[in-house]
Model the fold of this input.
Amino acid sequence: MYKKEIKVLDCTVRDGGLMNKWQFSKEMVKSVYDSCVEAGVDYMEIGYISSEDQFSRSEFGPWKFCSESDVREIVGENNTKTKLSVLADIGRINFNDIRPASESVIDMFRVAAYDYQIDKAIELAHHAMDKGYETTINLMAVTKVNERSLNEVLSDVQKSRVNTFYLVDSFGSMYSEDIQMFMKKYKDALPGKTIGFHGHNNMQLAFANTIECIIQGATMLDATMLGIGRGAGNCPLEILISFLKNPKYRLKPILQSIQDHIKPLQKDIDWGYFLPYMIAGSLNEHPRNAMAWMNSDKKEDYVGFLEDAFEKREDLK
Amino acid sequence: MYKKEIKVLDCTVRDGGLMNKWQFSKEMVKSVYDSCVEAGVDYMEIGYISSEDQFSRSEFGPWKFCSESDVREIVGENNTKTKLSVLADIGRINFNDIRPASESVIDMFRVAAYDYQIDKAIELAHHAMDKGYETTINLMAVTKVNERSLNEVLSDVQKSRVNTFYLVDSFGSMYSEDIQMFMKKYKDALPGKTIGFHGHNNMQLAFANTIECIIQGATMLDATMLGIGRGAGNCPLEILISFLKNPKYRLKPILQSIQDHIKPLQKDIDWGYFLPYMIAGSLNEHPRNAMAWMNSDKKEDYVGFLEDAFEKREDLK
Done:
C-alpha cells in the first residue's frame, strides 16, 4: 500500500510526556529526534507549547513548554528533512508569545480542541499561520460529539484556512466501522483538505485503525515509539514503519532508540495494554479514572475497576 | 454487530501451554474452565490430544495429552453449556486411542494441518466424526501456501464431511486486506460450511483481524485470556467479549480468572507484544527464531534481532 502522500508524525515525547509530566532526560529526547531523522519520519512533535505563566517549571519538564532555547538545545538549526511540531491547547498559549516562524526551528502548530472550542481553535491556527507556521486542528473526543455539533465543526473548519484536520480517537474506543463512518464524513465535508489520524491503543486497535484510515484516505499518521502515550498509549511507530512500503522510511534507527531509551522507561511508567485502559476504551470513557486506578494499590483488581466503572456511569443507573 | 451464529472458543490452556509445555497448575486450569462456563464461552479447548507414546510425561504437562481422566478431574461430567475441544496434530494421535464420544467429556476434535497434510487431516477428522465428535480442520501457515495448492486444499475440504474450516494466521502476519482476500476465497470455495478464525498478535492485529473476519462471515472465533499463547499470543478473550453484543457473554468472570491466574504467569512467561515477535510477524516468518531470541540474553537487542532475521532470509541474499 505505497502512497507517496503519506506523512508520519512521531509524538513520542509529546504524548509520552503525559505519563511523566515531560520529565525525560535530554539524552532520551535527543535519541528520539536523531532516530526520527535517520528513519525518515516526516514530523517529530517535541511537546506541548505553553506560555511560562501557565504551568510551573518545578512541576513540568521542558517539553510542556517547548521554549525555543530548549528545543534548539536538542535539534540545533534542524537542517534535516524531519519537521518539528508542537501541540497547543486552547488557552494555554498567549498569542503574543508565539514568535514568527522565521525566528523558530518549529515548523508546525497543531491545535487540540473540543467541539465547543472550534472557533477559538481556528482563531489560534489562523494566528499561527499568519506567523508562518503550518497548522492542523485536532478535534478531541469526537466519539462523544453528536451529529449536529460535528457537522457544525466540519463546516467551520472547511470555511477556515486551516489545511489539515485530524480524526482523533481520544478514548481508544473506535472500531473499524467507526473509522469508516468518521473518515467518510470528514472526507465528504472537507474536500481539498488533508485528513490525519491520531489513535489510542486501549483495545489494541490503534495500528489497525491507522491502516483503516489509510485505506479511507487519511495521509497524516501519528505514532509513538513502543506506543508510549497516555494510558494505553498510541499506535506503535515501529509497527507502522514496518507496514509502510515507502522506501524513505527505515526501521532500524527506531528499534535502536526503543532499546536504548524507551523500553527502559517501562520500569517506571505503565503505558500499554492494561485491563483498566481496555475497559475504559470499550466503554468510550476518558482514561482519567483508569489512570487513577493504575496509580493506586488496586492496580491489578480488574473486576473492581469494572464494577467501579459501571457505578460511575450515571447514565446507566 | 450482534450475530447469533457466533461461537467463541477459548484456547488459553492449549495455546498458552506452548509457552511452558502445559505445566499449568490444576487451580489455573479449573479457574479458566469455571470462568469460561460462567462467561458463556461456547467452547474451551483444554489442550492437545496426543498418544502417551508420543511425548514424555516427565517433560510435558497433562494438557499435552488430555487423557480422559485428567480432563474429568477438571470438568467432572461437564454438565454445562460450554463444550470441550482438543487439538490434534497429524501423526501425534493413534487412531485406536480415540475413544467413542459417548465415553468422553470431550465434544470436539480440531485437526491442525499444513497444506501438504490435508488428506491425512480429513482422514483423521472423518475418523473422529465416525466416533461421534464435532470436528474442524485448521489449515496452518496459509500465508506461505501458493494459490494452486490452496485451491486444492479448499476443494478437498469442500468434498469432505468436515463442517468447519479455520482461517489461521499462524505467523501473525495478516493485515485486514489479507483477511478480506482469504475470507472471500474460503467462503466462495466452501458454501454451507462454517468458517473459523485463529489469529496471532505479533503486530497487535489479532483482535482487529477477528472483527474483520466477523464482518466477512466467520462465526467461530478463537481467543485466549490476556492473549496468552505462543510468541506474541492470540486475540485477547476479554477484548473480544467486550466487543460482542450477544447478551449470553459475561466479561467479569474472565477478568477474575485473569487477575487470579493469568496475569501472574507474566512473571515467568514472555508472551505478548515484544519486538522480536513483531518483526517476525511483519516478515511473515515462523516465530521460532524470535522465541529462541527471547530465551537468550539478547532478548532486548532488537536491532540485533532485525539484522539476524534478514541474514536468515536466504531468499533476500
Q: What stands out?
A: Chain A touches chain B through 38 residues (CB under 8 Å).
